[in-house]
Design goal:
Rossmann fold, NAD(P)-bd_dom_sf, Alpha-Beta Plaits, elongated, NADP, 3 domains, binds L-homoserine, single chain
Length: 438
């Protein structure tokens, strides 16, 4: 009979406690599928006293993460503390250097130190599994790393942050404010400890960097990702998008272009009829455009304790089965440096919302500046706030003008809008949202 896999878990927050519970309640299923038992032998967390609703009797309490990572009884070290630095980094490195397998949900750690850690795993023979780091319960790492091993990838994109999708969905459907929706996301346990990490797009950027590495065989590099968050999105953008047949989503997009790999995170208008536009609430989705096959879209719960624990336990089950894949899908020596495609050369359609000063010549000035940059307009709508009636004060109030462009370059749009601002025909800053066609 094969001895059970002995697991040590560092971090007993919502996810850690759920992992302990799943290993206990699914023990028979896991043993059946892995061909051996899985047993939690030791744990560590900041507070020993905290009530977690799981039975830890008979489980050793290690003095700190490092002690747990190198504990002679532990075969598989599960890191659920989070954070790109210590103690997570030191503990994961120590476990790998000791030849143990590591399972982690820590996207920050992988986006920053993924290559260094994968090298340690490769050198000492342990597995480094991180399915839960991207899209929680969605098996997207396995899909890219193993399922599509024989297929070239041209683009991978998705809704990778549950908090942002939850906020945008509720803002759109219920007309609620950004702040109200964020508070609910925090209450429901979707948001990071510092929610600016979610809403400013950094959480998505880390996940995208990991996906890009798996998709394109590049060394994971968060610094190669262009990032914009959702805090500038106003209810009027969501309404205008709906009127024009689009929805706004925070997308992470990694795409192979002639200029290199473009990796970008920003609010994006997607056609309402696309699969990605149907994904609402905290749900995540990833679409992979593979060579010679139609796109594959994986949809599922991307945040929360149960969804994250589901992927962590599946990773532990792989270790129990003795499966060891190269962490980033290839031996380290086969991963190449990222050639970062400059964002200024990004090509695509744009949604532009301007607050135009309502006097003769404004529309002509805007059209001229766009034409100078060879930007062609697909549609243009001017929405007078009081239905076109003359302003009561006699003074021209600014009117929202919404433009959709045909495909153009980012730097052309930036130059045109800078010129429009210099012309003083608009109030405030233009709102720009990139359009992603499926
Ligand atoms: N804060 C993340 C999200 C949780 O909202 O998707 C999982 O990374």
């Amino acid at each position: 009979m094969v001895a059970p896999l002995k697991v040590g878990i560092a971090g007993l927050g919502t996810v850690g406690a759920e992992v302990v519970r799943l290993i206990e309640t699914q023990a028979r299923v896991l043993a059946g599928r892995s061909g051996r038992g899985i047993r939690v032998v030791a744990v560590t967390a900041r507070s020993k006293a905290k009530k977690r609703g799981v039975d830890l009797r008979g489980v050793e309490w290690a003095k700190d993460p490092l002690a747990l990572a190198t504990h002679p009884e532990v075969d598989c070290f599960v890191e659920l503390m989070g954070g790109a630095g210590d103690p997570a980094l030191a503990a994961v490195e120590a476990a790998l250097n000791a030849g143990k397998s590591v399972v982690t949900a820590n996207k920050a750690l992988l986006a920053k130190h993924g290559i260094k850690l994968a090298k340690a795993a490769e050198k000492h023979g342990g597995a480094l599994n991180f399915e839960a780091a991207v899209g929680a319960a969605i098996p997207v790492i396995k899909t890219l790393r193993e399922g599509l091993a024989g297929t070239g990838v041209n683009r991978v994109y998705g809704i990778l942050n549950g908090t942002c999708n939850y906020i945008l969905t509720r803002m759109e459907q219920e007309g609620l404010s950004f702040a109200e929706c964020l508070k609910d996301a925090q209450r429901l346990g979707y948001a990071e400890a510092d929610p600016s990490f979610d809403v400013d797009g950094h959480d998505t950027a880390q996940k995208l960097a990991i996906l890009a590495s798996l998709a394109f065989g590049t060394k994971v590099a968060q610094s190669a990702v262009y990032v914009e968050g959702i805090s500038s999105i106003a209810p009027e953008d969501l309404r205008a998008a709906a009127d024009l047949g689009y929805r706004v989503k925070l997308l992470g997009v990694a795409v192979r272009t002639a200029k290199g790999i473009e990796q970008r995170v920003h609010p994006t208008m997607v056609p309402k009829s696309s699969s990605i536009a149907q994904v609402m609430g905290v749900t995540n989705a990833v679409t992979i455009d593979g060579e010679g096959i139609p796109p594959i879209t994986l949809v599922g719960p991307g945040a929360g304790g149960a969804a994250t624990a589901s992927a962590v336990v599946a990773d532990i089950a792989d270790v129990a089965r003795g499966i060891r894949a190269n962490p980033f899908g290839r031996p380290i020596s086969h991963l190449h440096d990222t050639t970062k495609a400059p964002m200024e050369r990004h090509e695509g359609g744009y949604y532009i919302r301007l607050l135009a000063r309502d006097f003769p010549g404004t529309a002509a000035a805007i059209a001229t500046r766009l034409a100078e940059q060879k930007i062609s307009i697909e549609s243009i709508v001017q929405r007078h706030p009081n239905g076109g009636a003359a302003p009561a004060t006699g003074k021209a109030a600014p009117v929202p003008v919404i433009l959709i462009t045909y495909a153009t370059h980012e730097d052309a749009v930036r130059r045109a809008l800078a010129a429009v601002q210099r012309d003083k025909v608009i109030s405030g800053r233009p709102q720009v949202i990139r359009i992603e066609k499926n």
